[in-house]
Every structure is written in structure tokens, then in C-alpha cells.
Amino acid sequence: MVVTNICAGCHGSGALNSPKIGDAGAWAPRIGQGFDTLVKNAINGIRSMPPRGGGADLTDKEVARAVAFLANKAGGKFTEPPLDK
Ligand code: HEC
Fold first, then answer.
1. Residue 47's CATH number
2. Relative to the CA of 9, which ligand 1 atom is closest?
3. For the chain, N or C: smaller number of CB within 10 Å?
4. Which tens digits make up the pLDDT trace of 38-58?
5. pLDDT tens-digit readout, 14-36
6. How many whole angstroms from 76 Cα to the centroid of ligand 1?
7. Does 85 fall in a domain?
8. Is residue 58 in a domain?
């Protein structure tokens, strides 16, 4: 799974000052930016977060699903976009 294999590498422990999985306080201001902004920043990278979390072969949709998963673990209410068939 994308989150476990890639995103948790940093977000699991809060490495590089990343917002930790399940840390509502750290995620709240980020969630407040809205889903589209979060996805765009996750795809393009933001400060010490590399584009796609370093998962260069991830599709935009895979990244968007992982963003929804991470944010929702910390109080977000986003809908994971369905995977293409
Ligand atoms: C190499 C470490 C690393 C990996 C791997 C990583 N991230 Fe991050 N991520 C960060 C850091 C550091 C930040 C905080 C960046 C900042 O705001 O300074 C961050 C921030 C974010 C944010 C908030 C962006 C914003 O606009 O505030 C989202 C969403 C995010 N990551 C999603 C993901 C997803 C999805 C994955 C897996 C595909 C992932 N990250 C993998 C380090 C990582």
C-alpha cells in the first residue's frame, strides 16, 4: 500500500518535521488548506517533502488517495478518489 510503503517512511514518525499520522494538531492547519491544495503540494513537493514523497512512479490519483488517507487519520473528512479500473 502506498501509505505504508512510502508516506509512512516520514509521516509515521514525523521525520523531517512532517505532520505525523494521526496528529490532529499538526494536520489541522494543513487540512484547512483544502484537499486540492494538499494534493497539489504532495504531487509537487513542499519544502522538505519530495515530490510524490519520493514515489516517482505514483499516479496523481494514488497520491490523492494517500493524501485523503493521511488527512482523514487526523480528523479530515475527505473522500478518497476511486482508483481507475
Ligand atoms: C521524505 C519524507 C516524506 C515522505 C516519504 C512523504 N512526506 Fe509528506 N511531508 C513531508 C514533510 C517534511 C512535510 C512538511 C513540509 C512542510 O510543510 O514544510 C510533508 C507534508 C505533507 C503534506 C501537507 C502538505 C501541505 O500543503 O501542508 C501532505 C498532504 C503530505 N505530506 C502527503 C504525503 C503523502 C501522500 C506521501 C506518500 C505518497 C508523503 N507525504 C510522503 C515529508 C515526507
1. 1.10.760.10
2. 5
3. C
4. 999 999 999 999 999 999 999
5. 999 999 999 999 999 999 999 99
6. 15
7. no
8. yes
Nearest to 50 by CA among 11, 24, 80: 11
As a whole number of angstroms, the distance between CA 5 and CA 75 comes to 22
Number of structural domains (the chain) is 1
By residue range, what is the domain housing residue 63?
2-11+20-72
Residue 67 placed within a domain: yes
DSSP conformation letters of 27-56: HHHHHTT-HHHHHHHHHH-BTTBPGGGG-T
Q: Which of 1, 30, 46, 62 to mutate to test the pocket of ligand 1 (most atoms within 8 A of CB)?
A: 46
pLDDT-based confidence at residue 1 (cuts at 50, 70, 90): confident
Task: Return the C-alpha cell found at 72.
Answer: 482523514
